[in-house]
């Protein structure tokens, strides 16, 4: 769908009603197509930014702790970062279903847990820089394996977290509707 | 002490990602996640540079700027989630482009940052 892609091609994209699975935003951090998120910083931005900062700090410390617990040998496979990013991707799949379809979530829940904790916990820069560090004569397969392996596992984790949570939520809704 | 520095770096990096994402989105109306791409590329460039400094960069400063700030400025969960959501909405080109551009440009940025800083400190 090329017309959905590119900055020169604005697509008016109103989000559907909450409760539909397609009502989830594209960007879990902040999606300005969502009227609530567009205005969440307008009135009182202190609490939102404070929640994100606290969550980001805690998420970063959790990632640091995991990296200390599972240290990578020099030139070795960075298991800790892989685990961090895949776990964070699973959890954002779970979280986004919960905040958009299951809960009447408080307005600070998504910023604190999603933008802050999961955003601070997972890291794209370390992943890329570690891939660069793994590259060397004879270790190209290892570097490529880390690059592609993380990507595949992370995308699968989002889909899995999404599917499991949607199933749980939809199952409950059906029971409640009887 | 190191934990506190990582926390401080993360507490600055995450809100900066949110504000950058907002600022970029308010200028581009497309589905493509330009905001997340921007922070991830910036983080790769900076972390590449910090790594290029090697032993010239004190360990506490790396904990603050590298592990904390760059780690929280960039995000894999948002990148992964956006890619899946684009595919779910059948914006396949955007989903594939997001992965290819993020990886290629991120890697290029990291290598560039690393080489430039290493040339400067050596």
Q: Overview of this structure, please?
A:
The complex is a heterodimer of chains A (178) and B (122). With 178 residues, chain A is mainly α. Chain A is 65% helix and 0% strand. The model of chain A is unreliable at 1-21 (pLDDT under 50). Chain B has 122 residues and is mainly α. In chain B, α1 (2-25) packs antiparallel against α2 (34-53), α2 (34-53) runs antiparallel to α3 and α2 (34-53) runs parallel beside α5 (92-121). Chains A and B meet through α2, α3, α4, α5 and α6 of A and α1, α2, α3, α4 and α5 of B. Chain B: This is Fluoride-specific ion channel FluC. Chain B: Fluoride-specific ion channel. Important for reducing fluoride concentration in the cell, thus reducing its toxicity. Chain B: Keywords: Cell membrane, Ion channel, Ion transport, Membrane, Metal-binding, Sodium, Transmembrane, Transmembrane helix, Transport. Chain B: It comes from Amycolatopsis jiangsuensis.
Counted by DSSP, the helix tally of chain A is 6
Structural class of chain B, by secondary structure, is mainly alpha
Oligomer: heterodimer
- N-to-C series of helices and strands of chain B: HHHHH
Overall average residue pLDDT of chain B: 96
Q: How many domains make up the coordinates of chain A?
A: 1
Roughly what percent helix of chain B?
over 70%
Euclidean distance between termini CA atoms of chain A: 40 Å
* Rg over C-alpha atoms of chain A, rounded to the nearest angstrom: 19 Å
Number of domains of chain B: 1
Q: Helix segment count of chain B? A: 5
Fraction of residues in H or I helices of chain A: 55-70%
Q: How would you sum up the global shape of chain A?
A: globular
Largest interface: A-B, 73 and 73 residues
Number of strands of chain B: 0
Low-confidence stretches of chain B: none
Function (chain B): Fluoride-specific ion channel. Important for reducing fluoride concentration in the cell, thus reducing its toxicity.
Transmembrane segments (chain B): 37-70, 91-114
Subcellular location (chain B): Cell membrane
Binding site for Na(+) (chain B): 71, 74
């Amino acid at each position: 769908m090329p017309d959905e892609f590119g900055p020169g091609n604005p697509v008016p994209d109103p989000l559907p009603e909450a409760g539909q699975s397609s009502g989830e935003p594209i960007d879990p951090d902040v999606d300005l197509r969502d009227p609530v998120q567009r205005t969440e910083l307008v009135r009182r931005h202190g609490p939102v930014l404070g929640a994100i900062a606290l969550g980001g700090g805690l998420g970063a410390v959790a990632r640091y702790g995991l990296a200390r617990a599972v240290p990578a040998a020099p030139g070795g496979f960075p298991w800790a970062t892989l685990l961090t990013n895949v776990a964070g991707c699973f959890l954002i799949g779970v979280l986004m279903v919960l905040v958009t379809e299951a809960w009447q979530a408080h307005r600070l829940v998504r910023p604190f847990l999603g933008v802050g904790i999961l955003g601070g916990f997972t890291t794209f820069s370390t992943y890329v820089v570690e891939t660069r560090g793994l590259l060397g004569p004879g270790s190209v397969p290892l570097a490529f394996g880390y690059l592609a392996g993380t990507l595949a596992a992370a995308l699968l984790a989002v889909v899995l977290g999404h599917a499991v949570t949607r199933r749980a939520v939809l199952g409950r809704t059906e029971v409640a509707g009887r | 002490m190191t934990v506190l520095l990582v926390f401080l770096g993360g507490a600055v990096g995450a809100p900066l990602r949110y504000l950058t994402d907002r600022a970029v989105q308010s200028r581009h109306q497309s589905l493509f996640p330009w905001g997340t791409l921007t922070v991830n590329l910036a983080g790769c460039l900076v972390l590449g540079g910090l790594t290029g400094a090697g032993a010239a960069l004190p360990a506490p400063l790396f904990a603050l700027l590298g592990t904390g700030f760059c780690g929280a400025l960039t995000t894999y969960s948002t990148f992964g989630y956006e890619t899946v959501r684009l595919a779910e909405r059948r914006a396949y080109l955007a989903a594939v482009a997001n992965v290819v551009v993020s990886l290629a440009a991120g890697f290029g940025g990291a290598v560039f940052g690393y080489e430039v800083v290493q040339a400067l400190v050596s």
